[in-house]
Design brief:
The structure is a homodimer. In chain A, helix 1 crosses helix 6 and helix 6 crosses helix 7. In chain A, strand 2, helix 2 and strand 3 form a beta-alpha-beta unit. Chain A is an alpha/beta fold and about 220 residues long. The first copy, chain A, contains 7 helices and 5 strands; from the N terminus they run E-H-E-H-E-H-H-E-H-E-H-H. Chain A has a single domain, classed as 3-Layer(aba) Sandwich (Rossmann fold).
Amino acid sequence: MKAVLIYSGGLDSTTLLYEFRESIALAVSFDYGSKHNAREIEYARKNCARAGVRHLVIPLDFMGRYFRSDLLLSGGGIPEGAYDSENMSSTVVPFRNGIMLSIAAGLAESYGLDTIMMANHSGDHSIYPDCTPEFTQAFGKAVEYGTGKVGKPGSGVRLVSPYCNITKRQIALRGRDLGVDYSLTYSCYKGGEHHCGKCGTCVERKEALEGFDPTEYLF
Amino acid sequence: MKAVLIYSGGLDSTTLLYEFRESIALAVSFDYGSKHNAREIEYARKNCARAGVRHLVIPLDFMGRYFRSDLLLSGGGIPEGAYDSENMSSTVVPFRNGIMLSIAAGLAESYGLDTIMMANHSGDHSIYPDCTPEFTQAFGKAVEYGTGKVGKPGSGVRLVSPYCNITKRQIALRGRDLGVDYSLTYSCYKGGEHHCGKCGTCVERKEALEGFDPTEYLF
C-alpha cells in the first residue's frame, strides 16, 4: 500500500499518520477558509516533518467564498456543547470530505499511488453525512471506478478508512500506545491560540484524551 | 429540480445547458490548467449570458501544478487520431469529474439546490473512467449519502446525467433541434484560436456535427 492521507492536523488524522507512516507517501492538508485552518495546518506541517512524510497544502479559496457553514471564517459563531448534538450541524461544511478525497484520488493517480486514506470515526456519524460508513463505502466504489483503466477492475485507487467504526477515545488510546504527542495537534473550531474547551470538538477532545491530555484549555 | 451544472463550454454541456435551462440555477466552470481552458471558459460565459443562467468560474490551480496529464499546460503534446483510441489515454486528467462534481455538490448544498448535472456521454466510456455509467452511479450514491441530513434518505443532493447512455451525435442532433449555436462552443484539446481538426476531440466533433457544422477547422 502506498497512500495519500487527507490530513487536518487534528487528533484523529495525526494518529493515523503515525500508525500508518510506513504506507503513507503523501499527506495533504486543505486550506478551505475555516476558522481553525491556520493553526491546524501549522501542526500538520510539524507532524509531517517529524514523521518524515511529504506534505502538501492545497488552498481551496472558493470554499471560503461560496460555501455556507459556521465553521468558515465567512460564517457565524461556533456553537458550544456536545459534539454529536444537533446544534453542531451548523458546522457541517457541505461535502468537504468528498472534495478532499476527490483531490486526493487525483493526486494518488498522478503520483502512481494506489490508496487514499481518511480518519473519519464513529463519533462523526450522527452529524456529518460525509463521514458515515454509507458515504465511505459508496465513495470508495466511485473512486475505484473513476480511476485506473476502464474495464480493468483493481486498477483504480482504493479508499481506506481504518477508524470508520471505532470511537475517538479508541483512536486516542491507540495513539497513546504509539507515543503520539497530542500537544502537537489542534482541534478547537474557534481557532484561537488556546483550545476554548467549550465548543463541540473541544468537549469531544477532552473526553478522548481523559487521563493523558496535554492540552491547555481556556475553560 | 434546481440544479448546478458542471459546464465546460464544449458541445455536450452547452447542449445540456440549453435543454435544461429552466432547471439550472447555476453553471460552474473550472479553470484547472488545461491547454484549452481559457477558450472553453470564454464560450461558457457567452452561453450562460445568453441562456440567463448564473455562471461561476472556479480556479483549481493545484491541478495544473501537481496533476499529470497531457491535457494540461504542464503536460506533453496532444495526440491526434480517433477519440476512443488508446493513444488518447494520455489526456485523462485523474479523477477530474470526481473533483468537479464534489465541488458542485458542496455548492448545491450551500445554495439550497437539490441536483448536480454533468454531460458525460457513451463515447467517453472507453477511455475516461470518470465518465462511465459505473462511476456515475457510484458517485451519485456517494453524493446522496454525503449531503443532506444523516439518516434522512432523500434529503441529499442527486446526480443527474441525462446523456450518459447516448452518443455525441445524438446530443448534437438534439441541440440542432433546440437551435443551439455550436459556433459558440469549443472542443479542441490543443487550445488554439481555431479548432485543429486532427486531435481526438476535433475528430469526434466533426462526426457529431456532420451536415450542420459551423466550425472553422485548420485541417
